[in-house]
Design brief:
two-stranded antiparallel ribbon; alpha/beta
């Protein structure tokens, strides 16, 4: 969207969405359910724009560990993200990928040397160790480590401190922290490679839905979002649970893997057009696009001009939770980098504000403290 967010914009969007049939946030600085599908989803306790702790506080601790989740919550993140993948015996664990080569010390375990293998996951050929080849008991003998130690050397201080959490352990943690704090702890839960795992007989959606029902997090008012890069996974979840759902989208040229398998030619570029957004609004309440879909990069890798995606998504009654805000130069547009060290911090605060000024409803960030500072300028408008 070209225009900077103005006071009262969200109230207008809330009224417009009544005819769109999906959930948006209205009012000034807090969430308000609107639309026939979205009414009653109970987002009024969340600020706008909200900040999602991406894999926890992964800019400061190894991702998807209780150290990362706890720090994100303590920093004030509004929502904490989990990615779920299955074990051989059908338990859901929190890893960004089923390939655990870079995120655990599995390579240092001689008893698992013969588990190293080559697989093709969503079209990519990978060599390493994979969660679906381990029982939960075996996986629990491993320790988590920093995924990108070259960029985040300071995170390696915490290598080996935490194990790989199960999703059920996260649900218990969230309930415990919620009771301690006197408020609900919100989660943003992603199904990873659902088509791949369904072919292995390890369908994610049913397992996830069972756990959500067990802990009372399956309802419209439940404090969690469900997300996936595969729209068919969200469609399946929409039949199993009532909590809000978000379709994740890659860069404009990307095509969801389930579309690849089904022969559907649509790409992200198609899905962020009004017709594509209207289709998504039939089974989801939001989208989570790559930040470059909101503001593209120029040919010289600088920040370009905002697209109409925010305006178009809001017109379809969808909220937007794009990803991922990070502090390091290597992840920033060229005009927001500072100095020549790619691992040093650039002007992350400045670029986060540029993204938030487009009117997005929230943002994922590895550095939720930086993102929260940026978001404070836009809350209550």
């Amino acid at each position: 969207m070209q225009e900077r967010q103005r006071p009262g914009r969200r109230t207008v969007l809330g009224a417009a969405a009544l005819g769109a049939g999906a959930a948006v946030w209205g009012g000034t600085g807090t969430a308000s359910a609107a639309g026939s599908r979205g009414r009653g989803h109970g987002h009024d306790e969340l600020p706008v724009p909200l900040i999602v702790g991406h894999r926890g506080a992964s800019g400061y601790r190894p991702e998807h560990t209780f150290g990362s989740y706890q720090l994100a919550l303590d920093m004030g993140a509004d929502v904490i993200e989990q990615d779920v993948v299955p074990t051989k015996d059908g338990h859901l664990v929190c890893r960004h990928e089923n390939d655990i080569t870079a995120t655990t010390d599995v390579s240092a375990h001689p008893e698992f040397a013969d588990r190293k293998t080559t697989k093709t996951v969503d079209g990519a050929k990978l060599t390493g160790w994979f969660t679906e080849d381990f029982t939960l008991a075996e996986l629990k003998t491993l320790r988590a480590k920093e995924r990108i130690p070259g960029t985040r050397q300071h995170n390696t201080l915490y290598d080996g401190v935490w194990d790989v959490p199960t999703f059920e352990e996260v649900l218990k943690w969230a309930d415990r922290e919620g009771r301690k704090r006197g408020r609900r702890v919100w989660l943003h839960i992603e199904t990873k490679h659902p088509t791949y795992f369904r072919k292995l007989g390890l369908g994610l959606e049913e397992r996830l839905a069972r756990l959500l029902r067990k802990y009372g997090r399956h309802k419209k008012h439940s404090p969690n979002f469900l997300q996936s890069f595969e729209p068919s996974s969200i469609q399946r979840l929409d039949k199993l649970v009532d909590c809000p759902k978000v379709v994740l989208l890659g860069t404009l040229k990307d095509r969801p893997w389930d579309f690849e398998v089904a022969g559907d030619p649509r790409t992200t570029a198609d899905l962020v057009k009004p017709a594509g957004l209207k289709w998504i609004a039939g089974f989801a309440q939001g989208i989570g696009p790559d930040l470059t879909v909101i503001i593209p990069r120029t040919k010289d890798d600088k920040l370009g001009e905002p697209t109409s995606v925010v305006k178009d998504a809001h017109a379809a009654g969808l909220v937007l939770h794009p990803y991922t805000g990070r502090n390091e130069n290597t992840f920033l547009p060229a005009d927001y980098r500072r100095g020549s060290d790619p691992d040093a911090y650039g002007d992350a605060l400045g670029v986060f504000k540029k993204y938030l000024a487009t009117g997005i409803d929230g943002m994922f960030s590895d550095n939720c403290d930086t993102a929260l500072l940026a978001a404070a300028e836009f809350r209550g408008r």
